[in-house]
Amino acid sequence: MNHYILDASFLVVALLKNNPKVTEKWNIASNEVKNEKAILHSVSFFLSETANALRYTLEKEKAIVYLSLITNLPINYYNLQPEDWTVILDWSYTHNTTVYDTSYHYIASLLKGTFLTCDSKYYQKAQKEGFIELIK
User: Fold this and answer.
1) How many Å apart are CA 104 and CA 46, to the nearest integer?
2) At 104, which CATH number?
3) Residues 79-95: pLDDT tens digits?
4) Which are the contacts of 99, defined by CB distance < 8 A and separation ≥ 6?
5) 105 with 132: CB under 8 angstroms?
6) Which pTM does this prediction carry?
7) Owning domain of residue 55
8) What's the domain of life for this entry (predicted)?
9) Which of 27, 53, 84, 128 could, after both became Cys, cross-link 80 (CB 3.0–4.6 A)?
């Protein structure tokens, strides 16, 4: 079973079809989910980040439509525990990254999954941890 951890950068680009490679990866992942070969995961604050990305990318009416699509996706929201935050903060200092971005990556490492992102700055800093795929 594949485990895909989604961040806002990946999903917004995938759904808006702004990048063929990202759309292709999304189609692969979503087909695996439909065929019960993969599970989608994200952090508990994923919808806040995604709604914010939509707010600054689209007009209000379109943003509402896309947010509705996203909230209906079969995403498992991982609830980080107090002990997880210590590791996340450590990784964040080690790689000079945000705690937000590091949270997605950390979940991927816990689940032995793949963190799908379009954030090349984060990827460059933290790729040595593994469990991450940059789609550009």
Assistant:
1) 9
2) 3.40.50.1010
3) 999 999 999 999 999 99
4) 88, 89, 92
5) yes
6) 0.94
7) 2-134
8) Bacteria
9) 84
